[in-house]
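User: Hey, my collaborator sent me this sequence without any context and asked if I could get a structure. I don't really work with proteins. Can you help?
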Amino acid sequence: QVSGVNGDTLTTALIAGRQVLLVLVVAAVGYRLRRSPTVFAAVAAVAAAALYLRPFVGYVDNLFALLFGAAALWFLPDARKRWSARAAIFLFTFLMVFTHPTSAAIFIAVLFGAVGLRALLGRSLREAVRSEGWILAAATAGIAAGYLSWLVGLWGPGRTFRDAIHIPPYPSAAFLDATFEQVRAIHVLQFIPFVLLGLAVITLLSRRRFAVDPIARAVVVWLLPLVGMLGFYVGLRYPYKRFLNSTVAPWLLAGLGLWAAVWFSVRAARHGARERRWGRTAAGAIGVLVAAALLLSAWLSGIRSYENQDPWAPRNLRVGLAAVRGYLQVDQVRRPLVFVVSVGPKQNASLVWGGIWRGNWSQIRAGVPGRFIPETHVYFGSVREFVAGRPTRTGDRLVDLISRATHDDIRAQVAGRKPLVLLVKRFNRRLGNDRYLRPPRSLPLGGGVFALRGRDFAEPDRLALISARRAARERSEFLDLPVDRTARPGHLFRVGVGLVFLLVLPGLLSARWFGVKNVASIIGLVPVLSLALNLASGFLLLAVLRRPLSPELAWAITGFGTLVGAALLVVSLWRQGPAPAAMEEEPGGRQASDGQSRSQ
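Assistant: No problem. I've predicted the 3D structure and written it out in structure-token form, which is a compact way to encode the shape of the chain:
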């Protein structure tokens, strides 16, 4: 709606594209560890296989936080000397606070742990802080700025983190089940050999470098969140269960492991003694084939997992929500909207909280025009009890808790006004709510949505009902047609221009100032730098203007982000600063400069 684009086609590309951005960033970090195009390709191949598995698809907040955290990793070595790298770390950690605060807290703990590991290996805390104190200062400043902006309120009243972090009221068994489900979903045995080999590459084969390279140490420390899953096996209870998708370290290490497996296999086949040549060649070929088989298995798992997902909003719900939008376009009377959602008496806690309550509420928000969302509410429970003006009691602690909370919210917010009460058939098949899905108790809007009638509720507008039914019919016919993604070339061109401003221009212009100069790093870092500069520009302009986001303001934000990138380019050209020459170590212990690595 903001960009005037077709969400039915563009959203699909953006969901898949977000994973692509993360894959490229992780590959760029792998390249920074060992400057070889084959490393970039190997890390990208393994990360692509893993990040399309079920635990990583759909978690928008976690994945964007990982995107920014992985990008910050790339700048750690330069942050010891260069202000531009410190600015990048500050920017990325600031944005992590607004995407997923828990992942941001884990990431900054990882950075402190990496410095602590250097102090342990070098037996000098003072030297570790002197060398890498700027890394911690930049990250801490970003986290602090994000927290203060959240607390003070950039666009309105300040909020505490409690408003962003919902502690699921699950028993310990539910957390344990969720952990088992995540581990099963990633087919962990496919990746463990690669992860262990990658861990050996950056710790054992590069011992001297590991002690001084902040990226290598941070990657190892970033494995520790996975240990959090083990707590559930001994009966501990955490208000968090997404340990698996709070780190990219396993996939980065697995990519390095794939590269090492192929590299050493080929090396063994090439450089064996003459009398052992055939044996070594066979061993090398077997090593390559085993690595390829594991990678192929992981890729097939990722493809099946991604393609076999159920639609987030199924067809009948999309038709019903189209009817709601059609009704609201004609009914000009601004009144509260109340959706009633029922639940079964014996559903497990995870499904009640994450699926039926939060999931259905998210789908409702996706279908309601933005201007109506502040006046939209959900009642959780029985229509019969809602009509009687009280919360629903089922004997289930969690269901009753949510019902009481939603009842109290509606009573406080509606404040005696007559709301329009809507029943979506898909959400009201239990607790006897289906008895209200027919006249005279309700009137059909179309698409399985009904407006509840009663003396305390608003009577549906006749013309708006006609509009709702027409919108439902048109949406149903549209969904029955095959999608032709080339039917609107002008629209696609406009979308392409918008994506260039969103994901290419600001980062490409500012890349030189940030020290991003080789091809692999440009491919991995430019999109996330562009996104970060646009988001920061949006934060600033919305905080100053305090206006709702509109198409004009969206273009102004991307234009401002592009101007910032251009200004950074001018500064970098004026200073004519040389690119940072990071020292890289080959598997045999030999070190090479950036220029030497490229020539090799």
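In plain terms: Confidence is low (pLDDT under 50) at residues 1-5, 579-600. You can pass these tokens on to your collaborator as they are.
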